[in-house]
Design goal:
The protein is mainly α. It is built from 14 helices and ten strands. Among the domains are: 45 residues, no CATH class; 125 residues, no CATH class; 35 residues. Strands 1-5-4 form a three-stranded mixed β-sheet, with no helix packed on it. Strands 8-9-10 form a three-stranded antiparallel β-sheet. Bound molecules: zinc ion. The site of zinc ion (ZN) has 6 residues, from loops.
């Protein structure tokens, strides 16, 4: 194909499982020039991922860069919704890509998650104790659409494994499938069925699958752990279809008993299906929380209720700073503090319990002028929105041409 390799930028890794020292320092040549042999624990940077044998693969530098960028976004003069957008457009895909290529350790990943969540809550003007779910759910449902790093990692690993095992190219498929058979065989030490392999991948620890074999960490052990973790939340698992002789991933629907089975021919849909199910799980969790549940149940119903999240359209900073707190019932009202024995009375009218936002917004008498102004503002907005060709609009009078008192 006319390709030329730069031998200085290449590296070779030779592993022999039958030897005491697994890594052989064999010298290879490419186009007549020697290639650097990698030793055990030595890494080669491949697309930002340290690659090698028994290498700590967590791309510390890449993670550090991403966190620095997040801090820069935070310090910028962007509007809060633009900060969320910048995070989702530039940083999350970067993290996603990194997770696809490397085995990132849990601790640094949780650290990234914590820092990003803290920033997003700050941009949403939410107190840090507010429900995490709002950060993770989609704009359409009223959230910030920022994925939880652990979920992102599990989805990336499962999707990557599925794509390898169902690759249309038989060579690639076999290179992936053979070590998987070996890993499964090593675990249960007997002849394998396809069912065994899917049980292994799904992270089953029943009977023979539960034996601790001190397996060398590989894509397959990671797939197993990822499916097991995600399976506990959303119930997804690997399946072998005997009839069609093909591999699939079963993803249950959160609000019904239905299941989606992603087959090899629909392999491109797996990532989206898993993410959608994770989103619905967070939506359902938030709906069932006593404090935010009531408002969230309504605001998550219609896209129109959340139109401003993606672009901040028709939204003043004052509105933005109020709305997420109001929806999650985190507005610092006298009655909302559950601990201690403090005065819960309304600071305006003296009503016994200033606990509910509805009291402040709709039934605190000193604000009655504000109710009227709010009513008029909404009414006037509707009047402007109705096209003139639809007829005359009457405001604040009985219905013309009828006897109705309405
Ligand atoms: Zn009041």
């Amino acid at each position: 194909m006319g390709l030329h390799f730069n031998a200085k930028k290449c590296a070779a890794l030779h592993i022999d499982g039958s030897k005491r020292d697994l890594v052989q320092g064999t010298g290879f040549q490419i186009q007549g020039e020697p290639v650097i042999p990698l030793a055990e624990g030595q890494a080669y940077q491949h697309l930002g991922t340290p690659t090698g044998f028994r290498v700590r693969q967590t791309p510390e530098d890449t993670i550090q860069e991403i966190l620095q960028d997040a801090t820069k976004i935070d310090a910028s003069l962007l509007a809060p919704w633009q900060k969320i957008n910048a995070l989702n457009t530039f940083l999350i895909p970067h993290i996603s890509f990194t997770l696809r290529g490397s085995a990132v350790a849990k601790v640094p990943l949780n650290k990234v998650d914590k820092i990003i969540r803290k920033l997003v809550k700050k941009w949403l003007f939410l107190p840090q104790r507010a429900s995490h779910e709002l950060v993770y759910i989609t704009y359409r449902h009223g959230g910030a659409n920022v994925p939880r790093m652990g979920d992102l990692c599990d989805v990336a690993v499962i999707t990557h494994a599925f794509c390898l095992l169902t690759c249309p190219d038989a060579t690639v498929r076999n290179i992936a499938a053979n070590p998987l058979r070996d890993a499964t065989e090593k675990q249960i030490s007997r002849a394998l069925s396809n069912q065994d392999i899917t049980n292994f991948l799904s992270g089953s620890f029943d009977g023979e699958f539960g034996r601790d074999e001190h397996d060398i960490a590989s894509l397959w052990s990671r797939t197993r752990n990822a499916t097991c973790r995600l399976g506990k939340h959303i119930g997804c698992r690997w399946e072998w279809c005997e009839e069609r002789q093909e591999l699939g991933v079963r993803v249950p629907q959160i609000r019904s008993d239905d299941n989606t089975i992603v087959t090899p021919s629909a392999r491109g849909l797996l990532e989206r299906t898993l993410k959608a199910t994770i989103h619905s799980l967070y939506v359902e969790t938030l709906k069932h929380k006593p404090d935010p549940g009531k408002a969230f149940d309504l605001t998550s119903k219609w896209d129109a209720s959340n139109h401003f999240l993606a672009g901040g359209g028709f939204t003043r900073f004052a509105d933005w700073q109020f709305i997420h707190r109001a929806r999650l019932n985190c507005v610092p009202l006298n009655g909302a503090v559950h601990h201690g024995n403090r005065d819960k009375r309304c600071r305006k009218c003296g009503y016994s319990n200033e606990s509910s936002l509805p009291h402040v917004l709709c039934s605190c008498k000193p604000h009655s002028r504000a109710w009227q102004l709010r009513h008029n503002a909404i009414q006037n907005r509707l009047v402007t929105a109705i096209a003139p060709r639809l007829g005359d609009i009457s405001v604040n009078c009985t219905i013309p041409g009828t006897d109705s008192q309405l």
